[in-house]
Amino acid sequence: MTSDVNDGSSDNCGIQTMSLNQTSFDCNDLGTQTVTLTVTDVNGNQDTCQATVTVTDNIAPTVTCKSATIQLDGSGNATLLPTQVHDVTTDNCAIELMSVTPNTFTCSNIGANTVTLTVTDYGGNTDDCVATVTVEDDGAPVAKCKAHTVNLDANGAGSLTAADIDDNSTDGCGIASLVASPNSFDCSNIGTNMVTLTVTDTQGQSSSCTSTVTVEDNVAPTAKCKNMTTTCGGNQVTISASDIDDGSTDNCGGVTLSLSQTIIPCSSSPVTVTLTATDASGNTDNCTATVTIQSGGGLTVSVGDVTKLEGNGWGFTLFKFELVRSGGTGAVTVHYATADGTAKTYLDYFPKSGVMSWSNGGSDVKEVTVYVKKDQVVEPDEVFYLNLSSPSSGASISDGQGDGTILNDDGQTAQGNAPSLTDVQSGLQPERMLLYPNPVRERVHIEVPERWLESGSVRAALLDNTGRTLRTFEWSNAQNDVDVHVLENGIYHLVIYKADGTIVSERFVKSN
Can you give the residue ranges of every domain in the chain? Predict the structure, then answer.
């Protein structure tokens, strides 16, 4: 209205009209506007003036919010835009700007957060609302691996930590754990191995990478030597690494042994040799030993005598002959073999033959065991022999025959298995089993006295000539057949175990 801007306009004859060039305003006119007031008097004369009109908007907008969820980036940061929580805004004019506080978030804000959205219209009027913003970290960590080398220790073991193969793995909100698998190694892992590094962040998310781990054994073996004394059997002697080795070891097992010299002239004694121990990884160690060569003829071998009671019943008595090296500690070999005297092979003892060896520096005494058969037959003492022959070059035999004397210990009776004086005088004979044919090709027939079956049955066994049980039987009849056609040719024994505890045996020959 003109009255809003008229500030006392006047005329000498009187004012007829007043008018404004603009009387209505809207949101587009907010702010300062210039209007013109025209005054006309009764005679048609006019005058104008200008006034400043300020257009204001004093009506506040109305805003509503909505919840939002945002994700942290790889650096653990996130920015919230006002539009992400803005829902609906109304205003008589228009909104000039929107702002939200707070609008930046880090790992410390993971979870629900309250923010305020403020809207301002062009009139400077404001309204705000509150929204819930959920901050999440859905990004897995970035796992980075690097190669690593593990050196085994003296026990053949090695290990690594996750940090050894981690190449600065990252996560925006921090790494909770690093795990390497496998992380322990032994000699079987020497070479290239693939190890997995698992990286887990504080939110439980994980990722992994693979590292190449090289396992090495750089620990040298331990070479151990012993001195050696041997006998010259000509112009030179030949030795091996095993003669000098005294238990060389390595953290990863066996070693390869080599000698600096294996052929030694007898005239060079004593000689220092070097033993080199090399492990599977090429590590080496060495030690030295002195080899002393004795002149030939000083080293001798002998065998002693054995005298023992024969023994009763079924089974064997062990005759242990001692073979003794004298005159030095060098390596030597000798052949041995049993021989009949009044005691006979297989009837009284089992034959034995072979080669006995003494190593350098080893024990001087060796044993040869001969199995003598026990029986319950009254007979004179008997003897058999263990003879030595063919000693190795440079050695000699000082006593080459050992006597094995079997002392009879059966007396005049043997639990009914040998006839007593009364039996002989009365014509009675001890009970025994019958076994035929002998030699046998396919089946052997056995007959036992009926009295042996009074308890119902007897146990029997078929043995080979070494005493090894081949078959067992339970017989309730006095007459029985045993199929032997599959047996190899040789000497066998059929043994009966009677109910009264006595044992009766018969020998037979299997022959095709």
Answer: 15-55, 62-136, 148-216, 228-293, 300-407, 443-511
